[in-house]
C-alpha cells in the first residue's frame, strides 16, 4: 500500500472515529455533575474500613484483585524487557570513560538525592493517609537513585546498585502481594479480603488493615522494577557495544 | 474562576499533546513529553486528583522521557558505529 | 461549553496521538505518540469523576462527610495505569532496540520493504 493511499485511509477512519467520539461526548453525563454512585459507595466503604485515602482503599482493598492484575502486567513487562535487553554473544562491554561533572551539578545532585529518596519512601508509607502510595512512591524512590548518575558518574551508580538484588526485590514484592492475598484465604475469608488485621485508628499510620502492607509490597515492586528497567536501558545506551564486524547482520 | 482555571489547563494539555505529536525528532519529542507530563500533573491537581498527579509527575516527566532518550542514544550510537566501520 | 470541553480535549489528544502513530517515520517517535494516546484516557477518566466544588477523596485533613468528594474509583484506575503504562512503554522500546539491532533501521516503511 502506498503512502498516499494509507494517508487517505487514515483520514477516512479518523474522521469516522472523530464523529462517533464527538457524538458520544455530547451524550456523556455533563462534566462536574453531581451523580457519582460508585464514588459515593467507595468513599463509604473506605471510611468503614478506616482508610483516610479513599483512592488507596479502592486500589488495595476494594479492587485489590484488579491491582494484582496490574502488578502482573508490570512484572511481565519488566521480565520481557530484561530478556530482550540482555547482552548477546555478538556484543561486548566497553567501560565508559569517567565523565567530568561540574561541581555545582554534583553538589546539587548529591544534596537532593537523600531528600528525594526519603520523599519516595514517605510517599509509600503514607499511602493510606495522604495522596500517594506504592505506585507513586516507588517510582520517586527509583528515579531519585539515578541522581547519582547525574552527580557522579555511571560507575558510581553501578557500585550502589547491584541489579541482581533489585531483580530479586521485584520478584519478592510481587510474591509478598500474593502471600498477603493467600493469607486471607488461610484466615478463613477470601483472597485479598481486608479482614486479616484490625482496622486500627482512623488517620494513623497503622490504619486500614492490610492496605499499608499491600502498599509496601507494591512500592517495593515498583521501585525495583523502575531501577531494573533503567539499569537495562542505561547498560544498552552506555556500556554494551556490538562487536566490530557484523557478519550476522548481513546473513539474515 | 475555578472553571476558568480548568479550561486553561485543559487547553494547555491539548496544546502540549499536539506539540508532542508534531515534534518529529524523537529527542525533541521526549522533552515535549516531559512538559506534557507536568501539564497533565497540573490538570489532575486542578481536578482534585492529587494521587494521579503525583504518579503522572514521577512517570510522565521523568521515567518515560528518560527511557525514550536512552533508546534514541542507543539507536544513534549503533548508526554511528556502523558508519565508521563500513 | 464547559460541560463537554474536557471530553472533547480527551478526544482531540487521542486523535492527535493516533495521527502521529500512523504517520510516524521513526518507531521511537511512534512510542511517544502512544504515550500521548494513553494521556487521553487519563484525561477522560479523571474528567468523568470530577464534581463541581468537590475536594480530593482524601480524609487526612478534612472531616469525613463535611464536603462533597470527587470519584475515587476512576482515580484509582488512572493511577495504576500511569505506572503500568510506563513499564509497557519500556517493553516496546526494548523491542525497538532489538529491531534496530537485527535490521539496522527504525523506520517502519523501510522495515516493511525489508520483509516484502
Automatic annotation (TrEMBL), chain A:
Q: Which residues form the Na+/H+ antiporter MnhB subunit-related protein domain?
A: 106-227
* UniProt membrane topology term: Multi-pass membrane protein
Q: Which PANTHER family does this entry report, sorted A to Z? A: NA(+)/H(+) ANTIPORTER SUBUNIT B, NA(+)_H(+) ANTIPORTER SUBUNIT B
Its chief place of residence is membrane
Q: Which organism is it from?
A: Streptomyces sporangiiformans
**One GO cellular component from the entry?**
plasma membrane
Mark the transmembrane ranges.
Answer: 67-85, 105-125, 131-150, 171-193, 213-234
Q: Where in the cell is it found?
A: Cell membrane
Q: Can the keyword Cell membrane be found in this entry's annotation? A: yes
Keywords for this protein = Cell membrane, Membrane, Transmembrane, Transmembrane helix
Protein name per Swiss-Prot or TrEMBL:
Sodium:proton antiporter
Q: Which domain of life is it from?
A: Bacteria
TrEMBL record, chain B:
Q: Where in the cell is it found?
A: Cell membrane
Signal peptide residue numbers: none
Q: Which residues cross the membrane?
A: 6-23, 30-47, 53-72
This protein's membrane topology, according to the annotation, is: Multi-pass membrane protein
Q: Return any one Pfam family short name.
A: MbhD
Is Protease one of the keywords? no
Annotated Gene Ontology cellular components are: plasma membrane
Which keywords does UniProt give here?
A: Cell membrane, Membrane, Transmembrane, Transmembrane helix
- Output this protein's name: DUF4040 domain-containing protein
Q: Which organism is it from?
A: Streptomyces sporangiiformans
UniProtKB/TrEMBL annotation, chain C:
Q: Which Pfam families does UniProt cross-reference here?
A: Oxidored_q2 (PF00420)
Q: What is its main location?
A: membrane
Compartments where located = Cell membrane
Query: How is the protein disposed in the membrane?
Result: Multi-pass membrane protein
GO CC field: plasma membrane
Membrane-spanning ranges: 6-22, 27-50, 73-97
Show which residues constitute the signal peptide. Answer: none
The UniProt keywords, alphabetically, are:
Cell membrane, Membrane, Transmembrane, Transmembrane helix
Which parts form a coiled-coil structure per UniProt? none
What is the top-level taxon of the source organism? Bacteria
Q: Spell out the PANTHER family in the cross-references.
A: ANTIPORTER SUBUNIT MNHC2-RELATED
Q: Which family does it belong to?
A: Belongs to the CPA3 antiporters (TC 2.A.63) subunit C family.
* Record protein name field: Dehydrogenase
Which source organism? Streptomyces sporangiiformans
Amino acid at each position: 500500500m502506498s503512502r498516499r493511499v494509507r494517508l487517505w485511509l487514515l483520514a477516512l477512519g479518523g474522521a469516522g472515529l472523530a464523529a462517533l467520539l464527538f457524538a458520544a461526548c455530547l451524550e456523556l453525563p455533563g462534566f462536574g455533575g453531581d451523580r457519582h454512585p460508585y464514588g459515593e459507595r467507595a468513599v463509604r466503604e473506605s471510611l468503614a474500613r478506616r482508610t483516610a485515602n479513599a483512592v488507596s482503599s479502592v486500589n488495595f482493598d476494594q479492587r485489590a484483585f484488579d491491582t494484582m492484575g496490574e502488578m502482573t502486567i508490570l512484572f511481565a513487562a519488566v521480565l520481557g524487557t530484561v530478556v530482550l535487553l540482555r547482552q548477546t554473544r555478538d556484543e561486548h562491554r566497553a567501560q565508559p570513560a569517567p565523565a567530568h561533572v561540574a561541581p555545582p551539578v554534583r553538589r546539587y545532585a548529591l544534596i537532593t538525592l537523600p531528600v528525594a529518596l526519603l520523599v519516595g519512601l514517605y510517599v509509600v508509607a503514607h499511602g493510606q493517609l495522604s495522596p500517594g502510595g506504592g505506585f507513586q512512591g516507588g517510582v520517586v524512590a527509583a528515579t531519585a537513585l539515578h541522581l547519582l548518575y547525574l552527580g557522579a558518574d555511571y560507575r558510581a551508580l553501578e557500585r550502589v546498585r547491584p541489579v541482581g538484588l533489585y531483580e530479586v526485590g521485584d520478584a519478592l514484592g510481587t510474591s509478598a502481594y500474593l502471600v498477603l492475598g493467600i493469607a486471607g484465604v488461610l484466615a478463613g475469608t477470601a483472597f485479598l479480603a481486608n479482614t486479616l488485621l484490625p482496622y486500627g485508628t482512623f488517620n494513623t499510620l497503622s490504619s486500614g488493615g492490610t492496605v499499608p502492607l499491600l502498599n509496601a509490597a507494591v512500592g517495593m515492586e515498583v521501585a525495583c522494577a523502575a531501577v531494573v528497567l533503567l539499569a537495562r536501558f542505561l547498560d544498552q545506551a552506555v556500556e554494551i557495544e556490538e562487536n566490530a564486524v557484523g557478519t550476522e547482520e548481513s546473513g539474515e | 474562576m475555578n472553571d476558568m482555571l480548568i479550561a486553561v489547563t485543559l487547553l494547555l494539555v491539548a496544546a502540549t499533546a499536539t506539540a508532542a505529536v508534531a515534534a518529529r525528532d524523537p529527542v525533541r519529542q521526549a522533552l515535549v513529553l516531559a512538559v506534557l507530563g507536568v501539564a497533565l500533573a497540573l490538570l489532575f491537581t486542578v481536578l482534585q486528583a492529587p494521587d494521579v498527579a503525583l504518579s503522572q509527575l514521577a512517570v510522565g516527566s521523568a521515567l518515560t522521557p528518560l527511557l525514550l532518550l536512552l533508546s534514541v542514544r542507543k539507536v544513534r550510537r549503533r548508526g554511528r558505529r556502523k558508519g565508521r566501520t563500513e | 461549553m464547559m460541560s463537554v470541553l474536557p471530553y472533547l480535549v480527551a478526544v482531540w489528544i487521542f486523535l492527535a496521538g493516533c495521527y502521529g502513530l500512523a504517520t510516524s517515520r521513526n518507531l521511537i517517535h511512534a512510542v511517544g505518540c502512544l504515550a500521548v494516546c494513553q494521556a487521553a484516557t487519563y484525561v477522560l477518566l479523571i474528567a468523568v469523576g470530577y464534581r463541581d466544588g468537590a475536594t480530593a477523596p482524601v480524609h487526612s485533613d478534612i472531616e469525613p462527610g463535611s464536603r462533597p468528594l470527587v470519584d475515587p474509583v476512576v482515580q484509582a484506575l488512572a493511577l495504576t495505569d500511569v505506572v503500568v503504562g510506563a513499564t509497557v512503554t519500556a517493553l516496546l522500546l526494548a523491542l525497538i532496540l532489538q529491531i534496530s539491532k537485527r535490521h539496522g533501521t527504525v523506520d517502519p516503511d523501510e522495515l516493511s520493504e525489508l520483509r516484502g
